[in-house]
Specification:
By secondary structure, the chain is α/β, with parallel strands linked by helices. Helices cover 46% and strands 14% of the residues. The chain has two domains: 2-147, Rossmann fold (3-Layer(aba) Sandwich); 156-277, Rossmann fold (3-Layer(aba) Sandwich).
């Protein structure tokens, strides 16, 4: 009888320890959320932001708003014990308030490179004590090496323009130091706005026509918000370019295209192939 009571007590103690070890995890940024799921720890997530919509099961989780306009009240209402945020999450003062409330907040470093994705996998895996971290990171790195070799064999170098316009009313072109510019370079293509400016700038008909892109890249959200490709191409100058005249437009969802997630090898490979088929 004493043995049974001792065994029961031991089991309860172990179970209590496991329960205490499990985090109430809040992920901010679609790329962060994807990594957590890739590590097999998605069941620890209690809430995400609205940029987190892959894999499909993330859409069943509570949303705490947009990653760049967070509120302390919204975050704390989910009673998190750990928050892992993308580099662009903020405002900074809100994240500082959360830290002051005693919640551990970890933020990724900025970077749009294949190597940074591997770093993010290892960093997040370390925070979650995920035993399969190195395996997942190595699989990603092998996939990128295969994609890189495939892309290197492509002979043409398309001149492309990336247009960002999630509302359908404020189109902007991607210049240097953007995720879009990094993606274009990884696809062995030329950004027609490279060297002209940094970040995103509003489209002007004159600059777009002068740039004369062979292909236009955008997001599926931009096409949907515009009401279709034909309406999308009515934006300033686009219809007058070689790409616009031939309706050479390539689009993917923004997280897949710009998120620099573990799916990056597939995203870059798909893009590199698509812009050469047009």
């Amino acid at each position: 009888m004493k043995y049974c009571l001792l065994l029961t007590s031991l089991v309860l103690t172990i179970a209590s320890g496991v329960a205490e070890a499990a985090e109430r995890l809040l992920t901010i940024g679609g790329s962060v959320t994807e990594v957590v799921y890739a590590l097999g720890r998605g069941d620890e997530i209690v809430a995400t932001d609205i940029t987190s919509y892959y894999p499909e099961q993330t859409n069943k989780l509570p949303k705490i708003g947009y990653m760049r306009t967070l509120s302390a009240e919204g975050l704390l209402s989910m009673s998190p014990t750990l928050i892992i945020a993308d580099a662009g999450a903020g405002p900074v003062n809100v994240l500082d308030q959360i830290r002051s409330a005693g919640v551990k907040v970890i933020q990724l470093k900025e970077g749009h490179t294949p190597a940074q994705v591997a770093t993010n996998i290892r960093f997040i895996g370390q925070q979650l004590n995920a035993a399969n971290t190195e395996k997942v990171a190595a699989q990603y790195e092998a996939a990128w090496q295969a994609a890189e070799a495939k892309i290197a064999a492509l002979k043409t170098n398309p001149r492309v323009l990336f247009v960002l316009d999630h509302t359908g009313k404020s189109p902007q072109a991607a210049g240097n130091e953007t995720a879009a510019d990094a993606l274009i370079k990884l696809a062995n293509a030329t950004n027609v706005m490279s060297g002209l400016f940094n970040g995103y700038k509003p489209l002007t008909a004159e600059s777009i026509v002068a740039a004369s892109p062979d292909v236009i890249i955008t997001t599926s959200e931009a096409i949907q918000a515009s009401g279709g490709i034909d309406t999308f191409l009515n934006k300033p100058g686009l219809a007058l370019t070689p790409a616009g005249k031939a309706k050479r437009v390539v689009s993917y969802d923004s997280l897949y295209l710009l998120g620099f997630t573990p799916r990056l090898p597939n995203a870059v490979s798909d893009l590199a192939t698509a812009i050469r088929k047009q």
